[in-house]
Write a structure and sequence with these properties.
about 230 residues; single chain; eight-stranded mixed sheet
Length: about 230
């Protein structure tokens, strides 16, 4: 559950519409920055400010939309071919996502990583009923030992290192708001004993687009097929 108070109303209106408008998703990338803590792996998260048009007051990983400058990344950049192979695309397709990931991590938490540090995790697209849609790569990278992550963006009002299990407990209790891709990513991280094992794992990645349908009781539900 995303716990977005406006989600149900948007879904009902979209299903009831005679003509449905579908927005073109913007390319985006987000990064699970991970490290080891005393009780297992930790991940760096931020809470988006309440005034954001998309996912307000929602806990997310650092990331954002692909900018024009990101398309200039050389497809021969070290590490890009391996990342593209995991994500199931050619290097030139992967390039802008990788560039955006590196840039956003530096802009949003002051941490410098390289394309070679990135690991592919998932590929999600916002459901068609949403007015703002994103075609998002979820990537991961290890936290450099000689750097410190800190909130450096006005788009978030809180940031912290968390154990995935702790954050999932708070989400299930209704204390924090998260989107389904974030929840699933945290569940996957929680299965690993340490950050190194998580980063070494090569998951099966497929493009996931949740489909809005009416349930047997008429209540809208998202049907999602995971890889």
């Amino acid at each position: 559950m995303s716990r977005d108070p406006g989600l149900a109303a948007r879904a009902q209106a979209w299903l009831a519409a005679a003509e449905r408008s579908v927005a073109v998703p913007r390319l985006a990338a987000t990064v699970m920055l991970v490290r080891d803590g005393a009780a297992g792996p930790q991940v760096y998260v931020q809470r988006r400010v309440a005034s954001m048009a998309f996912a307000p007051s929602t806990v997310v990983f650092p990331g954002g939309g692909v900018d024009p400058v990101d398309h200039a990344l050389d497809p021969a950049t070290p590490g890009l071919a391996d990342l593209a192979a995991v994500m199931g695309v050619a290097a030139d397709v992967a390039a802008p996502f990788a560039a955006a990931a590196v840039r956003e991590v530096q802009e949003e938490c002051g941490v410098v990583i390289t394309v070679a540090d990135l690991r592919g995790r998932a590929h999600w697209v916002t459901p068609e009923f949403e007015p703002r849609r994103y075609d998002t790569w979820i990537l991961a990278a290890g936290m450099p030992a000689d750097q410190e992550a800190r909130g450096t963006t006005t788009e978030s009002d809180h940031s912290a290192w968390v154990r995935p299990g702790d954050l999932l407990v708070r989400h299930r209790a209704g204390k924090v708001r998260m989107l389904p891709p974030t929840v699933i990513s945290l569940e996957e991280l929680a299965d690993f004993a340490d950050a190194a094992a998580f980063l070494a794992h090569r998951p099966r990645v497929a493009r996931v687009v949740p489909e809005l349908v009416a349930g047997a009781d008429g209540i809208p539900m998202l049907r999602t097929v995971l890889p």
